[in-house]
Design a protein that fits this description.
Chain lengths: 359, 321
């Protein structure tokens, strides 16, 4: 969404081949921008039978992420918000190279993540971690908590001695809010509650001391009363250790509580991005306005206008022409069917993609 | 249908109507679960009542007994659960004292329930339409073909295309599955529908759609509705009356307006404290469900001691610091 002209083209720099692991370790953050995502595209081909493939004139793709550009600053929490199927998870996964992009660039400290080779990726994964949505399925039920948290250290051969490993594991578990850590070390996941399991996942993600953590709906499967504690923990991590978080959620109210900046996604595109307070107080895109209007408010007297969008997100295979939001947009005009809206700069960091903003 | 049943058992006396408030009155309902270590007192002396056409919200944290209270109304408790005392008076009958057979004639015909996870509540290997037809066939004695005609009407009512009646649950999206569950709950024109967290697993936009649908149907069909939710703000937006439960007991009840303006219990206070004072700041209160006041481990302590205030209502919630 932001600047693309000023910096030199990425392809020139790394046309020759893969990025070396040494380049990664010597890379530094410039201007506070940790990630610079430019025109990212992630298309998934639709599996077709042999015969159909012969007959078909063109190959069809699920356009999960379709030309998305944004920056992530070091030490911030960026929230990716959108309905299910809008590509927010795919964006997060692609930034960690869990999916390969089909186009565009992801620059991590100025280095293109899509060109990382195997060795570089290993180094990179020490720096970039992920927390999954469901703590019931994302940790191995047959491992003890110690083994779960120690695994990244073992895989990367980081600790020279067992003692050091134990110390680091205990520190990570303590920092994740399971105190005293020694009580939890030799327990199994089934002995813990959902919130405690999610803390174990967070400990596993932070044990290597990463720069960035992609948190994919980390509190969606947790009880409301525990959500608060987990969110607080993430803010604490951010403030104490300077970890950058990319917080993926469908719930704008969660994003509002925790994030510094919000990017609202719709059907593979970022429709609005900016400082959280600014975006929530002054939403410009009709989709953001609708999302904000449907957040329930604990006040029976307040009668608010709900902008309830009809239907569901369209199929990402056949994306509507023009503005992809126009079939559901309450403010759509005829021009919306034809013009793919460019990014409009509003104030400061705030951008939105809608042709009717200036009206 | 009731006529044929009474012919089959001619010796049975006509049941006396019990006088009670409204359509449903729950009086001091107490439900325990038997566990190896002793009884879990899931619901203790819970009372509330519901007029015809009214909506009641049953709210509280998970584990506070709100679902158990609702399941006790329908007597759908698991084997180790039992209603220890109290009455569930529905339309002149005491459901708490009714036999399993007697209940089977009330379930779905007069009281139906929308379960929480639509994916788990629907049979994955049976067409959704046929599943919805099942209670119609059973209660109205219709053939499957005739019941399917009614199912198609129901699909129209809840806003799913009639073409989808023969779809399997996995072919429907989450929102559509929840709509199908609502269609199923309405299949036999019940008087009372219980919604057990009907929107919890859904996206915010779909949640808004479903809540709007429930509100519209309630008006059109003059239904009474019990909404079970952990989300006080959802309750505030959809219900006329509310009952707040905490650790198996009712801690607050009344009209929703009353609950939110004069909350007396610390749990309700802290949950609704961030209500906006001015209309402009309405959206600033929204994340109250995220910034839930008490963690489950500390909840006892939190209740005995009033929860500390966290700044002015318009301020951002305390999670930041």
């Amino acid at each position: 969404m932001a600047t693309t002209e000023s910096t030199p083209a990425v392809t020139d720099l790394y046309e020759k081949g893969t990025v070396h692991a040494d380049d990664l370790s010597s890379a530094t953050v410039k201007d506070g921008v940790l990630f610079d995502v430019r025109d990212l595209e992630v298309y998934f081909p639709i599996q077709q039978g042999f015969f159909k493939a012969m007959v078909a004139t063109e190959k069809k793709y699920v356009k999960a992420v379709d030309r998305v550009s944004f920056q992530v600053k070091q030490g911030e929490i960026l929230a990716l918000v959108g309905e299910s199927g809008c590509g927010k998870t795919t964006t997060g996964r692609t930034m960690l190279r869990l999916e390969d992009p089909t186009g565009g660039h992801i620059l991590y400290k100025g280095l293109p993540v899509e060109k990382f080779g195997q060795k570089t990726l290993r180094e990179y994964r020490k720096k970039a971690q992920i927390i999954f949505q469901d703590p019931y399925n994302s940790i191995n039920p047959k491992q003890t908590i110690f083994d779960i948290v120690a695994e990244p250290l073992e895989v990367n051969n980081i600790c020279s001695s067992e003692r050091e490993k134990e110390e680091r594991v205990i520190k990570a578990i303590n920092e994740a809010g399971l105190r005293p850590a020694t009580e939890y070390l030799y327990r199994y996941p089934h002995e813990l509650s959902g919130g405690q399991r999610q803390r174990v996942c967070i400990a596993g993600a932070t044990v290597l001391g990463p720069d960035v953590i992609v948190a994919d709906e980390p509190v969606a499967s947790l009880d409301v009363s525990i959500r608060n504690d987990i969110l607080k923990l993430m803010v604490e991590h951010k403030e104490k250790m300077g970890v950058t978080y990319i917080f993926i959620t469908h719930d704008l109210s969660l994003a509002w509580v925790i994030s510094d900046r919000i990017a609202v996604m719709y059907l593979g595109r970022i429709v609005e991005i900016g400082e959280t307070l600014e975006v929530v107080a002054n939403p410009k895109h009709p989709y953001t306005k609708a999302l904000i209007s449907v957040i329930p408010v604990p006040d029976p007297v307040a009668k608010r206008e709900h902008v309830i969008l009809k239907g569901e997100t369209p199929n990402p295979v056949d994306i509507p022409s023009g503005c992809r939001f126009h079939p559901r947009c309450p403010e759509a005009i005829d021009a919306c069917k034809e013009i793919d809206p460019p990014d409009v700069h509003i104030t400061g960091d705030h951008h939105a993609a809608c042709i009717r903003i200036d009206e | 249908m009731s006529k044929t049943k009474s012919k089959a058992a001619p010796t049975k006396k006509p049941v006396e109507r019990i006088e009670h408030k409204g359509l449903l009155e729950v009086r001091e309902l107490t439900t325990y679960f038997k566990l190896g270590v002793g009884d879990v007192k899931a619901v203790q002396k819970v009372s509330f009542d519901l007029e015809p056409g009214e909506s009641l919200g049953l709210a509280g944290e998970s584990g506070c007994g709100k679902t158990t209270a609702a399941l006790s109304i329908l007597k759908l408790l698991p084997d180790n659960g039992r209603i220890v005392s109290g009455d569930v008076l529905f339309d002149g009958r005491n459901l708490a004292k009714r036999t399993e057979f007697g209940m089977s004639r009330i379930r779905w015909k007069e009281i139906s329930i929308i379960f929480q996870g639509a994916m788990n509540a629907l049979n994955p290997v049976r067409e959704t339409g046929k599943q919805i037809a099942e209670p119609i066939q059973l209660h109205e004695g219709l053939s499957e073909a005739k019941a399917m005609v009614r199912v198609k009407e129901l699909y129209d009512l809840v806003g799913i295309s009639q073409k989808r009646v023969m779809d399997f649950p996995h072919q429907l999206s989450g929102g559509m599955r929840q709509r199908a569950m609502i269609a199923m709950a309405l299949a036999c024109n019940p008087k009372l529908v219980i919604g057990d967290e009907p929107t919890t697993a859904l996206d915010v936009m779909v949640q808004a759609q479903i809540l709007e649908l429930i509100g519209r149907l309630r008006k059109e069909l003059d239904l009474s509705f019990i909404l079970i939710s952990h989300d006080l703000s959802v309750m505030a937006e959809t219900c006329d009356k509310g009952v707040i439960m905490y650790a198996g007991e009712v801690v607050e009840s009344g009209t929703t307006t009353n609950i939110f303006t004069n909350a007396t219990h610390p749990y309700t206070q802290s949950s609704s404290r961030r209500s906006p004072t001015s209309t402009r700041s309405a959206r600033w209160s929204a994340p109250s469900r995220a910034t839930h006041p008490t963690s489950s481990t500390r909840r006892r302590a939190a209740v005995s001691a009033p929860v500390a205030t966290s700044g002015s209502p318009a301020a951002r919630p305390s999670i930041r610091r």
